[in-house]
Amino acid sequence: MQFNSDILKVLIPAFFTLFGIFIGSILSYRNSFKLFKNQKKYDNRRITYSRLLAYKYIWIQSIIFHLGTRFQAEYFYAKFNLLSDEKDLEQSNKEFDRAANLMRDTSIYQKEIFETIGLIQTCYIINSELELAITELFGAGTIHIQPFPTTLKNIKELNQYNNENNIKIPKMAEDKYLVKVDKLLRLLKAQLDSEK
User: Fold this and answer.
1) How far apart are CA 53 and CA 47, in angstroms?
2) Disulfide engineering: 78 pairs with which of 63, 148, 154, 185, CB 3.0-4.6 Å?
3) d(CA 191, CA 122)
4) What is the value of pTM for the model shown?
5) Which pLDDT score, from 0 to 100, does residue 195 have?
6) Which domain holds residue 69?
C-alpha cells in the first residue's frame, strides 16, 4: 500500500502543529509556574516586611510599659522599706502583678516579631549585612530593672532617684530594640525596592 502524497501534505503539517502545541503548553506551564513562584516570593517578602513594620512600635511600646510598671513596683517597694507604710507594699504588689500581665503581652508581640524574622530568613536573600541585623535583634537580650539602692536615706532621695531613672526607660528600649528593628527594616526595604 502506497501513501498518497496528498495525505502526507496534510499529516506532516498537522503533526508539526500538534508538536508545537505540546511544546508550547509545556513552556507556557513552566513559565507561568516560574512567574507564580516569583510573585509568591515577592508577596511573602512584602507581607513579612509589613508585619515587622506593624509590630515594631507595638512591641517597643509594650516593653516600655512593662519596664515602667516594673520600675514603679520597685519604687513602691523601696518606699515601703523606707517608710514602712502598708499601702506602699500593696501598691508595689499591684504594680508587680500589672508588670507580669504586661510581660505576657510583650511576649506575644515578641513571638510575632521572631516568627516574622523566621519568615524573612526563608523568603529574603540573606546577605552578611542582613544576617548581622537579624543576629543583633535575636541577641538583643532583655532589659532588667534592678531594685532601688538601699542607700537612699529619705523620701526626697527616693523620689529623685525615681525621677532620674524613670525617664531613661524609653531611651533604653529604643536603643536596645527599636534601632535594631529599624536597621532590619531598612535592609528589607532595599531588597523590596530592588525587585520593583
Assistant:
1) 10
2) 148
3) 14
4) 0.78
5) 75
6) 5-194
